[in-house]
Design brief:
Shape: globular
Distance between the termini: 32 Å
Number of helices: 1
CATH superfamily: predicted glycosyltransferase like domains
Number of strands: 7
Strand order of the largest sheet: 2-3-4-7-6-5
Strand content: 35-45%
Radius of gyration: 14 Å
CATH architecture: Beta Barrel
Helix content: 10-25%
CATH topology: Thrombin, subunit H
Length: 116
């Protein structure tokens, strides 16, 4: 059986620091890392099992210390496959809002990651 990719853009492995904000949590930012990244979404480490469909905001810190401000929707939640991973969950996020400036930076970051 052939696997059919549903994503609009291929993901690239990326270990970039992020801070995510989820409401109705206490409003504090959670600091963690991306697992992979694309122009339309990301998979990120999560400390909590967040609900599917929920809105999430996060700041992605690029390797040049530039910050991308992104809004998204949680599309997938799964336990981390590695037993000693720093975060117990991985969430798949589809980007729903990103400024043109941050989208340009995202494209540049993805190009650098693809070369490595």
């Amino acid at each position: 059986m052939e696997f059919q990719e549903r994503r609009a853009a291929a993901r690239v492995p990326a270990h970039l620091p992020i801070k995510y904000f989820y409401r109705p949590a206490n409003g504090a930012a959670t600091t963690t890392y991306t697992v992979d990244l694309s122009e339309t979404g990301a998979r990120v480490e999560a400390l909590d099992e967040l609900p599917l469909g929920a809105a999430i905001a996060f700041l992605v810190i690029a390797d040049s210390n530039q910050v991308m401000d992104v809004r998204g929707q949680i599309m997938r939640v799964e336990p981390t496959p590695e037993p000693r991973a720093p975060a117990p969950y991985r969430i798949g996020v589809r980007f729903t809002q990103i400024s043109e400036t941050d989208r340009t930076l995202l494209t540049q970051v993805l190009e650098r990651l693809k070369k490595n």
